Amino acid sequence: VENPTQNLESFFLNVVENAITKDEETSGSTSGHAVAEFLRSDAPVQSQAEKMLDRLADKEASKPKPKIQKETPQVEQPKVDEEKLESLSESNEPGPPKEKVPESKSTERQQNIDKADDKLSGLLGED
């Protein structure tokens, strides 16, 4: 058992030849004729080396030229008075008193959470 193989071009040409011999319509496909004019190029075909040189030349031409930067004079930064900063950052006045949650509310909240946990455990079937 052999599996003959053929390339796509030879397969196409065989199909066209068979269609011509049977006088079937080939939708304009023919064999043995010249390449269509719109597919032909009148310009000479560039070699791979010429294409590479053209691309390199285009890259060099498209590179932006380095801009000459003008020297800007450095502006002196004002000195920071560390002592003044420390005196301002320290607070001699007592801040507002922190609010403390009364223990009765926190224990009441905890009890509510415990009750909710118990209900959920009962729904899940855990005892």
From TrEMBL:
Residues 22-127 are annotated as: Disordered. Residues 51-63, 78-87, 96-120 have a biased composition (Basic and acidic residues). This is Uncharacterized protein. It comes from marine metagenome. The lineage of its organism: unclassified sequences, metagenomes, ecological metagenomes.
